[in-house]
Amino acid sequence: MPQMSKVELYAAIRRDHRAGMKMRELERKCNVSWRTVKKAVDSVWPEPRKKLPPRPTALDPYKPVIDEMLRTDLDAPRKQRHTITRIFHRLIEEHGADVSYQMVRRYVSDRKPEILAASGKAPVEAFVPQTHLPGHEAEVDFGDVTVRLAGELVTCYLFSLRLSYSGKAVHRVFASCGQEAFFEGHVHALRTLGGVPRSKIRYDNLKSAVAQVLGLNRARVETDRWIAFRSHFNIESFYCRPGIEGAHEKGGVEGMIGYFRRNHFTPAC
Q1: Cα(201)–Cα(190) distance, integer angstroms
Q2: CB distance 160 to 257 below 8 Å
Q3: What is the 3-state secondary structure (H, E, C) of 98-116?
Q4: pLDDT by residue for the chain (269 residues), tens digit each?
Q5: How far apart are CA 138 and CA 237, in angstroms?
Q6: Separation between Cα atoms, residue 175 and residue 185, nearest integer Å
Q7: Are 252 and 162 spatial neighbours (Cβ–Cβ below 8 Å)?
Q8: Is 238 in contact with 140 (CB distance < 8 Å)?
Q9: Which of 43, 99, 124, 195 is deepest in the core (most CB within 10 A)?
């Protein structure tokens, strides 16, 4: 898992504070000073700090070599694929690399799932029917719709938030599906519904929320503005698997968008 960013730290402190945890308990749990706890409780947005460029490492020249070994493993017999130890030894013996085992291990652990995902050879999954509790979960998505503006057909974007248990949904049309529309759609939907789902809201990996997908698991690097926004509204995010593999995980809102488009935007008007 990547190290928690300061925005994520603030969001965690605010969540625990809402749950009734006291300031000193938050200091001990998060291993931060009382000043940091107070700043997090007072604001979702930390003070900006200067970002330094990543420092070069001794492993950098050999990363393409490691990537090639991992790609070769995709078609190799299962029992004859590279271990981290074997990669480490090959770098030293064949390339004269002066690197540590820990450095190689960290890189391979991060890079191997990415190469597997890019190859399309992810493991086969089984599916289990979903059950939902009232008011606990929701799904969010955008869908394109064609409308007539000033006599011309224009593509717009339908924001939809659907409650998983009742199927009740709130929709709003925007000129774009950018972050501003994403945030405004949430505000409109939550005000209309009168609250926030108690458990989680399901999303795909749209750029308004996700800066980077990390391998094949559920870990995501979220955008700072989205972390601050959902912390303010106490939204718990859940991200579906990328591509067609994750389509079933929020099929309710995707079906709702199609229903709404067919029944309210047909014919295009």
Answers
A1: 12
A2: yes
A3: CCCHHHHHHHHHHHHHHHH
A4: 456 778 888 888 988 898 899 989 999 998 899 888 998 888 877 777 677 788 899 999 999 999 999 999 998 888 788 999 999 999 999 999 999 999 999 999 999 999 998 887 766 555 566 677 898 999 999 999 998 888 889 999 999 999 999 999 999 999 999 999 999 999 999 999 999 999 999 998 899 999 988 876 778 999 999 999 999 999 999 998 876 666 677 888 999 998 898 888 877 76
A5: 10
A6: 12
A7: yes
A8: no
A9: 99
Q: Quote the DSSP letter at residue 50.
A: P
Between CA 174 and CA 104 the distance in angstroms is: 47
CB 184 within 8 A of CB 212: no
CA 86 to CA 93: how far, in whole Å? Answer: 10
Nearest to residue 241, comparing CAs of 231, 233, 251? 251
CA distance 44 to 18: 13
Which class would CATH give 137-265? alpha beta
Torsion sign across C-alpha atoms 19, 22, 23, 25: negative
The two tokens of residue 61 are 């020249």
